[in-house]
């Protein structure tokens, strides 16, 4: 089958998010064809280029979300620009401008009226209102060659202002000033840019058997439009919740309460529409699943599919005997404030009181400028809490806390980094899907983790879990494992078995392969697609088409088997007795 893979700021760009799992998915499902439709987030991302693509990728079409300039907004296959027009409002006719004002007014009216799950009474009407307006704008954009100019026009700003001043609007929306309305209009235009793409014909997404969006939000919007225009089924995968990410990544220009409220309401409405129209939703963990259900997703259409990770590079360490020093704790990851290394250092101070020979290895590079300054603060705290120690007056002092990076002599590879500790510690206060924890499980290591994100779901009883920001609880758990090598071995073996069962690339690919077949096998067929040999592709025609009979006409009567032919003919009207005697 042909899959339209939809991404935003990810695959196939070198610097894209979640590019690794997308690449593994495409390469693992080599029996299918993939067309990639990618939205880029910045010029630097486009300049960095693409990762090498496997032969089953037929074509790549990209479009930028990072500029509003007409000459930069184009749909371009294989990197060659050209295609959709920008749709300046001045080029629209009077009737088109009136349609735009009506549809956009309905859209922002549904947004400014507030948020809520579409199953909650009146909010269902707002969800329908939002969806109708969205598809109305999409149809207008298709007819006029784009709406980018109209979406950032004075008409759009005035329409938004009227919606915010209307009765029943959000209180914070009614307080929005003109500069804030301009910011919201610009952000809505950026989020709605996929409406102006030329991706929705029979030579693009219309030719796909299935659209697979690798995230919600703008990445899934082309899939919604392909479903609307071409009746192509939509599958949405969320390993991180797009709506939650939006709330966490609002910049300083969107800090005003009115801006945050309106943009939050828009993304909530868009998420609800995506969840309502998708054939199947595949969250990466129960945390993402709860967000989807809160936004109105039908539980019957949700299938949890854990991210697939390559276990082979950890196989040697996981299968070998434990060679780590029995009194060593190790932390591996990106150094940033969310990892809460400060609490880890304070917890290690408590550990040292119980186990004076214990050591702590912090292995990882800083994540950006904030991470570098945070790392410096952690080094200073470690020097303060643990002065250099020496066994005698003539020995060189040594600090029990070391800061290292992958590739150093002490930790040449990621697997060796995990192998260097008897216990692996995760001390985060914010965590989505804990990739580092799964890597430690692949290595057969006992773990102590904080109860954040999907940690409990991943661990499943094969490690110790403590509350976040609680150094004492973290220290007690670490001491308990350091003092019990047999328990460490049991937990490590159970953790490795669980990781190999649930979190490998193979299980991820097998799950999506089954979901692809499930969706396509029950979706109405719009055309017969032939392969290179001239034979219909699998599922190119429905199963009932192979059964003799007319299945597309009026419903036939079902008769008992063995009924004589006269019983199926048209009944003969009886002649009244009186009439017969008179004749």
Summarize the structure.
This protein has 583 residues and is α/β, with parallel strands linked by helices. The chain is built from 22 helices and 13 strands. The relative contact order is 0.09.
Report on the structure:
The protein has 583 residues and is an alpha/beta fold. It is built from 22 helices and 13 strands. The protein has helices spanning 19-28, 43-48, 94-112, 122-144, 148-151, 154-165, 171-174, 178-191, 221-230, 242-248, 257-277, 286-294, 315-319, 341-354, 368-385, 414-419, 435-442, 455-459, 471-482, 485-502, 505-521, 577-582, and strands spanning 2-8, 33-40, 57-64, 76-77, 210-213, 234-238, 280-283, 328-332, 359-363, 401-404, 423-426, 446-450, 464-466. The strands form two sheets. The protein has a seven-stranded mixed beta sheet with strand order 4-3-2-1-5-6-7. A six-stranded parallel beta sheet has the order 10-9-8-11-12-13, sandwiched between helices. Helix 14 (341-354) links the parallel strand 8 (328-332) and strand 9 (359-363).
